[in-house]
Amino acid sequence: xTGWREGDTRVLANAxxxxxxxxxxxxxxxxxxxxxxxPFVTIPLALSALAGPAVLLGWIAGAFLCLCDGLVWAExxxxxxxxxxxxxxxxxxxxxxxxxRLFGFLYLWQTLLxxxxxxxxxxxxxxxxxxxxxxxxxxxxxxVVAATLCLLxxxxxxxxxxxxxxxxxxxxVAVVAAALWIVLTGIMHFDMATARHFMDAPMASGKGFWLGxxxxxxxxxxxxxxxxxxxxxxxxxxxxxxxxxxxxxxSIPVVAVLYLGLNVxxxxxxxxxxxxxSTAVVADMMQAVHGAWGGTLAVVLILxxxxxxxxxxxxxxSRVPYAAAAAGQFFRAFARLHPRDGFPTVSLLxxxxxxxxxxxxxxxxxxxxxxxxxxxxxxxxxxxxxxxLRRRPRVEGAFHMPLYPLPIAVSVAxxxxxxxxxxxxxxxxxxxxxAAGSLLFLWQARRTRTWxxxx
Length: 455
Known about the structure:
By secondary structure, the chain is mainly alpha-helical. Helices cover about 70% and strands about 0% of the residues.
């Protein structure tokens, strides 16, 4: 791995994927990423962390934090519309030949750690719901199903991105329609007595309330995650300075309303104690209303959602090692593009195969760790990256967030609150990961005589 400067002839001029993703393609990539398996398995976890109507406050707080953070992503993605988004944001903001090298490396480091786990988590969720339909699968069978799904998605994505955009749009329509069906079913069969029982549930107070609110907000942010997926594909987006901000900022409120409706629908049909201990809460709700066929159909639709989520997350993350390699900061093989269709080949295969291997681990316990690692490695640094870039001449046509710098202050405070309430073991593990990445960067920098070591 070697350094890179503007105009470096080692980066081939024609090694650039075509810009083929429009607004609807970018919006569907975000929405499909957001409406994955997450809410269908985490609603019971949220109810267990904070009982009573306060749990809805956690979902609202998470949506508000994501909206503020979405303004950060929208400005960065519009200013620097490149594939692999955050890698370029951090390097440009903090100096390509100075601290930006460290931040860019740490982002790549955390991506190599978290990308397979994030993709694998969707696949594991898919396998768990498949086990609801086929109980004889067992633990070993579910692992095989999850790993096979990752490899199948890798094969599906091994083609030009325009074809995937069409597939993403079709699946997004199906997933949103299914979620609306579930919400409408809950509203039509809403039971006031069941809802009143939920509203009367005892709520935590004092420290317990704030810890619970942090836990629910962390779960909500995990479920909302994906509103930034279009930024990962910035180099393949048409009219990116307009398309990226619109795709980010439209997807968040749409999915937030859908999730709140999903929560209210479930809590108006199932007693909250039953929902808190359910392993397939949506299937239980639909079965309570429609019988066995309703539960089965709901599971099938959730399987479609989790498959689509794993697909678009793999698509986004597969561009990150490619972007780093194209900039001369990672192994050159990862910059290889398909000779005819122009998509990253080695990068896609690497992320897809490691995701399949991650399915052999239990990922549910790592949700909090994944979020805290991303917050400490990336999200807070991106907030200050906006401040750094604003000190430079304004890019013509780029999006600038309203009420600056208030959204940044809210984002930083919110991220720090989630980290502080995540638990000491999670924080320590994340800091160890940061330390390991920093030491690896310093070893690499000293070997190549680059910043912070003099040539």
